[in-house]
What does this fold into?
Amino acid sequence: MLKVNALMIKSVDYADNDKILTLFSLEQGVISAKIRGVKKAGAKLKFAAEPFCFAEYILTEGSLKSVANASLNDSFYPLREDLFRYYAAGAAAEFVKRFCPENVVHAALFSATARFLSALAYTPVRAEGALAWYLSGGLKEIGYSLRLDGCAGCGEVPRRPFFDFGEGSVYCEDCRGEGAKELSRDTYKLLLALRGGEETPQESFFEELGVEKGYYLRALRLINRFLLTAAGGELSSLKAFIKLCEGVF
Ligand SMILES: [Zn+2]
It folds into this structure.
């Protein structure tokens, strides 16, 4: 038997009443496991197959692991009552599923993901700010850091910053290459403020930053395009989140 602390990041139906879960575990990174009977009414382990369930999973070992038992740590239940927060959480889950190979330990990203879900579920932090912060830190964890502190060519603070999507770097007007896209002052200010990693910021952090809502979407679009250009795939749930926000911002 194998015991892991894990977040349930994806489930697909399997046979009549079973599911295959993708678990993001602290101890072993991303792993797949079958769970039996969870589609039956009153199934004891139903909670363990719910989106974003944070639990201690007891798994049988073998070519396809199977969930023998689970004890709930946190269901982050309020995520299911707010469409924006649910989509933002889904974008984080897709990020992990897409960019963390199975059985590669990502302890810092695991903690950041759990903290992100907790902030989204239990604090009034704006979903777009928390998600941008999470993804900015996540990029670092998968080896695609954004380098924004100064022009990647001359080192100066760029008066007009241009973003290079192949490198994830910022350039000044003189050093920029072809295809680099000019960033607005507020998009740049926001991206610089998104340090990721540490504690997910509270809403007061974003209030004090004073950047208008629309720039959060620009920052998220930039991150998604960077993932497509540099890391080989954008996140469809991030696109869906942005679209949802566009309808109300
Ligand atoms: Zn320069």
Summary: Residues 213-231 form the longest helix (19 residues). Residues 151, 153-154, 156, 171-172, 174-175 surround zinc ion (CB under 6 Å). The chain has two domains: 2-75, 78-246. The chain has seven helices and eight strands.
